[in-house]
Write a structure and sequence with these properties.
With 453 residues, the protein is an alpha/beta fold. The chain contains 16 helices and 20 strands. It folds into two domains: 225 residues, 3-Layer(aba) Sandwich (Aldehyde Dehydrogenase, Chain A, domain 1), CATH 3.40.605.10; 188 residues, Aldehyde Dehydrogenase, Chain A, domain 2. It is globular. It binds nicotinamide-adenine-dinucleotide.
Amino acid sequence: MTSVADTLRATYNSGLTRPLAWRRNQLEQMIRMLEENEAEFLEALATDLGKPAVEGFITDIAFVTGEVKSMIRNLKKWNRPQRVSSPLVTFPSRSRLIPEPLGVVLVIAPWNYPVQLLLVPVAGAIAAGNAVVMKPSEVSTATSALLGRLVPKYMDTSAVAIVEGGVPETTDLLGQHFDHIFYTGNGTVGRIVMAAAVKHLTPVTLELGGKSPVIIDASANLRVAARRIAWGKWLNAGQTCIAPDYVMVDEKVSDRFIDELRDAITSFFGDDPQSSDSYGRIVSPRHFDRLSSLMSGGTVVIGGETDADSRYIAPTVLAQVNMDSQLMDEEIFGPLLPVIPIASPGEAIAYVNAHPHPLALYVFSEDKAVVRNVLAGTTAGGVTVNGTILHLTNPNLPFGGIGESGMGGYHGKSGVRLFQHLKPVLTRGTRMDPSIAYPPYTERKAKIFRKVL
Ligand code: NAD
């Protein structure tokens, strides 16, 4: 049986995906799919994750349409050959970088922002002129089914395919020949993806996760810090790859910070977050059980309530944290926030450096020297200073990890560039043909070379 990669390769080789008009049309169709079916998407996100409609709209609809609209606006510019200068020894010549698509791209997405994390890379691949196979997460079942129904209705299925399914289906895809694999998810599967890519020497982008720290020094505006951390942490009930994972706060202000967090939680979600329309749910019983057991790693000082039937876990803050517990070992990826008092920012820097490079790092301080030290003294995929999450929303800042948190960055221009090969082309003129470079290599020529090279 012909594999989906082979079918799409035949389309790609036919040249269908090359004209900018085809790419623009497909990107417009993607926007149409999201806009015409917005209510259904929001409903599916609510079924999978209890996602509040406003949150779903911002993170999984508007974020995607914003990125795609920018790709449409810049389609010509980002696919135009770039002139570069040529060295004297190549005279007479001109040099260009010609952006070319890579071929057939595979995009594998996770469940936490199941529309955004699938469609933004798919759009980048299309804008660059590739054919693309997309594999939504089987964990976000309703959203996967909806995409499975709508993508073939709106997109050109001869070049843009969707394959639904779990491990067997993904394993089958990974055995096929792709020209780039873009994977978002956990590091264990990231390693499986990278190992599979070896067979065809396929380049990979890995958007992984990890424990993203927050460092707060004594000079920080604690009220603002608490509100910004509370927003970034309890968005999507903590199931965000760059959610603050744990907080290291100067011990002199630690209690005050926890009081501010309590106020922030109450002002966002009321006294009973379970009845709030603005608070999500845990994606599956498996993750609910995992998170419930992580709570034993500290003392609950805020929240802690759970309800297995509705997969609800309250916004929860833990103090007196056991640094050797599972809570501090694995990425939490849920609504639990350990708060750890520290003697100085240096202690936090040392702790961060003793662990794998995080996907995101946050520092809150009014002291520029502290911010400088944290930035210079740590490595992370990306940073927001005096805030959380927002570096991801700037299309001019490539989003991605480093080391254990991933490789490669996307969003904005970098999200198209990722799926292009910039082919270097040097074109020589023929009206002159200086003989200096040709044999025989005389002493005179050697002298000239010594001067010009
Ligand atoms: P998931 O379980 O949905 O898995 C992701 C994808 O991998 C799915 O499409 C799934 O079908 C596939 N998969 C699962 N097991 C597989 C296997 N054995 N072989 C081949 N494919 C397999 O999502 P997840 O991994 O639980 O997602 C959560 C993780 O993703 C967290 O670590 C989070 O930090 C990270 N994440 C990173 C980003 C980012 O942009 N860097 C964004 C969101 C989530």
